[in-house]
Structures are given as C-alpha cells and as structure tokens.
Amino acid sequence: MFDNFGPNIARVLEKYWGLFLQGAGYTLLLSFITVFFGTILGSALALMRRSRFKPANALATGYVELMRGTPLLLQLYFFYFMLPELLPLLNLSKFACVSIALVFNSAAYVCEIVRAGIQAVDPGQTEAARTLGLSARQAMTRIVLPQAVKNILPALGNEFVTVIKETSLASTFFVGDLMTQYSTVRGTMFLVLEPLVVVGVIYFLLTFFLSKLVNSLERRMKASD
Question: Does 1.10.3720.10 match the CATH number of domain 5-224?
C-alpha cells in the first residue's frame, strides 16, 4: 500500500500544486474576513455585554451563548440555506454565505476576548478619567480601550490561527478552500492519503508560522510594558 506513497505525493504536488496554492489563498482569505469582521462585531457585542442597558446586555449574552453552544457545522448549514431565502435579491454566493456564518461564529468568541481584555485594565484608570471630567464613553475610548488592545491582540492572533483550521468545515460547500481542493484531487487521481498528507502539511505550515508571529507579538508587548 505504501510502496508508491512517496512517488504518489510527488505526482500530486507536480500536477496540482497550483490547486493547493489556490486553496491556501482561499483559506487565508476566508480566515482574514472572518477575524476582521468578527472583531468588529465582537467588539460591539463586548460593549453591549458591559452595558447597563439590560435589553442590550441580555441580547449580547444570549447571542454569545447560542453561538458558542451550537456546533459550527450546524451554523454553516443554517446560514448557507437561510440567507438566500431571507435575502434573495442579494444573490449571495456560497463563499459569501459561508463567510457570514464564520463571522457570526467568530464574533461570539471575540466578544469574550475583548471583554476579558477590558476587564484586565485596572478599574482605577476609569475612575481617574472620570474625576478628570471625562464621560464614560470618553474614558472607555481614550483610556481603557488603548490599554486593553495589548491584552486583546495576541488573543486575536490565536483566534486567527484557530479560524484557519475551522475553515476546513467550509469544504462541505465547496468554496475553494484547501479541503475543497483535496476533494478535487482525490476524485481526479483516485488517491486518498497522498493529497490528504499534502493538505495537512500546508495547514500545519500556515498555523505554525502564524503561531510564531503571535508569540513574537506577545513577547514584544511584554517587553514594552
């Protein structure tokens, strides 16, 4: 079974390296879209969870619990079939539906990251800002959030690494990511393990180098404290 394993991997790479490269590009693009917009939505949710306005707090809390308490694959199916029905005029593509599902899922986790980052800032900073005449909003935007960013950025980097792996579920809908390309190569060459190994190595390299970047960022932030 393994006699031709090495040569088969070489054939897979020689013939389909372009497909794997394209799949890696789609995976990174999907991950970037998810983390970027997930951070925006998650930050808004974090502020809602800290709000004294009970309906906003309850809405954000319920959203976070719902998204964190249900499987990502279920959410992908839900958004994939629901969005075209709700928004037929937009004619959303498969990639758009999957991206939106991932953004909404990531936002729940980013919300907790941002909330924890804000809570890590000494409450005395807010009190000092208020005694100087700043409003609650000004104290948050000018004093608390800039300090919270140091706690948030490394965690967001780890979220980006996690999302790269989670995008593999998007292959269920054939959106061009790495696992989609694996399915294409497997069906064309009638090989299972060889293209799977190639895809696994690419995922490992992507997450490994991004993890190293995140660790480097954490060390620099600690050194600047």
Answer: yes
